[in-house]
Amino acid sequence: MGKRVFYVTNNSSKTRDEIVSKCSRLGYPATRDNILSTAYLTACYLQDIVFKKKVYVVGSKGITQELDAAGIKHLDVGPDPMCSDVASLLRNEVQLDKDVGAVVVGFDEHFSFPKMVKAATYLKQPNCIFIGTNTDEILPTEFPLTVPGTGTFVRAMETCTNRKAFKIGKPSPYVCEAIIKRHKVDPKKTLMIGDRCNTDILFGTRCGFKTLLVLTGVTTLGEVHQLEKSSNKEDQELVPDYYIDRLGDMLPLIS
Amino acid sequence: MSIKNLASLSRDEVKNLFSSIDTILTDCDGVLWLHMKILPGAPDVLNKFREMGKRVFYITNNNVITREEFCVKCDKLGFTSTKDDVLTTSYLTACYLHDIGFKKKVYVVGTSGISRELSRLGIRSFGVGPDPLISDVATLVMKDFKLDPDVGAVIVGFDEYISYPKILKAASYLNHPDCLFIATNTDERGPSFINDCVIPGTGSMVAAIETCAGRKPFLIGKPSTYIIDAIRKRYNVDPERTLMIGDRCNTDILLGTRCGFKTLLVLSGVNTLDDVMNWKQSDNEEDRGLVPDYYIGKLGDLLPLLT
């Protein structure tokens, strides 16, 4: 039908190439240019502001590889556990790099106290940029377990630095700016499809897109009706224009 | 009500104030010592309070040591204390579980300061120490971690071994609405600075777990009023005849205001007189709870007024 399709994900652990592989495996054609993931968008943001220093990353190779692709210098990621005790850590083991000008917090399965100390100490400088890739509190859950999401690490760092992170992913407006700027998209002729009202639909509303909620994921129809009835203006932004049980149900309607 | 500078009161006024006080609760860092250096005159003032027949309690949001270890630290700095004078949040957390008749197990994201105080009161716990991610998140979730059905509470204190597996486990236990969620305190940063480093405080560990658990904890430490419940269950204390001394308005003074204590702010720590004046003039009623009854430059300045 001649429509451009973009895959928009808050996942910060994968590079665009890895997402392309995953999409292909599952039968969805994709190229790097149609993927908008937060690791990639973080690198875009740093390019947009002409960032020339180094980045301290609390996150994964998904982020550092996208930074490499954009020519942005960064410190290494991976485990950084407590080796001795707090006093020794602070006295001897924290060696800060004077060239660090930004801290990026993404999903980090190796999150640790030494990393928190380093990130917070870099962020003591007011001109050190503070970026959070996204604020999803949990990943799709494996009930009865809860799988913490990036929002967990971002909130921890916002608390001990008393600073707010610049958020890259949905529902923040940066994704919108990046799409419009890089891909010349007209918001009025754009449809956002998602399963989560407080990220996907809210994001679409804020960008001026039309919004379609699919009921195969997080948000239920019951929850949408509650939001519709709410007198809270903010809740109204989470209400989609359209909904459908699942994306596949559209096929007979458009062929 | 105007805030009075204690140092500008007459000896009779000071005498009258203290004759209406039986119990003194004092914060430690910023009042008695600052980054492990004694604030001059502070030990003498506390000794004088005791000579005058007042009961003195040390109140601290510190939860990484037991009360006995805290006494050893006090002793090194020249302050006399016994464990019954000390109220650490590790001890108070154990008191809380004891007071509510808690019989299950506790999952602790914190140090042995907490687990040892729990054990003293016969409460079983686990989780303290390193718990790094060995394989990957998928394996942890699918295979490596099974919920212990006997866990009835999660306590979060300062934990230098904070890790993804610990946050995942705490949040998973907290999925059950009957599982208690307790935070020792919410201080965002540690009180000291070593080498100019920022020391993330318990508050940041609590924020991490609150975020993914989607729940707020019951707070033990200042400015939560649990402290006064704990003290009154164990000692005969009259809030109206109690003085709270602290350096931080949004924990120490706020606690005092909420409990109906008289409050004294020392200016040797976190807050300044300007801060106080701003809150006094604020339209926000909550801000006025941060305003102390009295202030003084440092605790040691009281000594000439008491002798």
Provide an overview of this structure:
The complex is a heterodimer of chains A (255) and B (307). Chain A is α/β, with parallel strands linked by helices and 255 residues long. Chain A folds into two domains: 38-167, Rossmann fold (3-Layer(aba) Sandwich); 187-254, Rossmann fold (3-Layer(aba) Sandwich). In chain A, 38% of the residues lie in helices and 18% in strands. Chain A is built from eleven helices and twelve strands. Chain A has helices at 16-25, 38-48, 61-69, 86-93, 113-122, 150-161, 174-183, 197-207, 221-229, 233-236, 251-254; strands spanning 7-9, 35-37, 54-58, 73-74, 100-105, 129-132, 138-142, 145-148, 166-167, 191-194, 210-214, 242-244. In chain A, strands 4-3-5-6-9 form a five-stranded parallel beta sheet, sandwiched between helices. Chain A has a three-stranded parallel beta sheet with strand order 10-11-12, covered by helices on one side. Chain A has a two-stranded parallel ribbon with strand order 1-2. In chain A, strand 10, helix 8 and strand 11 form a beta-alpha-beta unit. In chain A, helix 2 (38-48) crosses helix 3 (61-69) and helix 5 (113-122) packs across helix 6. Chain A is globular, with a radius of gyration of 20 Å. The model of chain A has no long low-confidence stretch (mean pLDDT 94). With 307 residues, chain B is an alpha/beta fold. Chain B folds into two domains: 4-61 and 223-306, 3-Layer(aba) Sandwich (Rossmann fold); 101-219, Rossmann fold, CATH 3.40.50.1000. Chain B is 38% helix and 17% strand. Chain B contains 13 helices and 14 strands. Chain B has helices spanning 11-19, 42-51, 67-76, 89-99, 112-120, 137-144, 164-173, 202-213, 226-234, 249-259, 273-281, 285-288, 303-306, and strands at 4-5, 23-27, 33-34, 37-38, 55-60, 86-88, 105-109, 124-126, 151-156, 180-183, 218-219, 242-246, 262-266, 294-296. In chain B, strand 5, helix 3 and strand 6 (86-88) form a beta-alpha-beta unit. In chain B, helix 7 (164-173) crosses helix 8 (202-213). Chain B starts with a strand and ends with a helix. The mean pLDDT of chain B is 94. The chains are: A alpha/beta (255), B alpha/beta (307). At the A-B interface, helix 4, helix 5, strand 8 and helix 6 of A face helix 6, helix 7 and helix 8 of B.
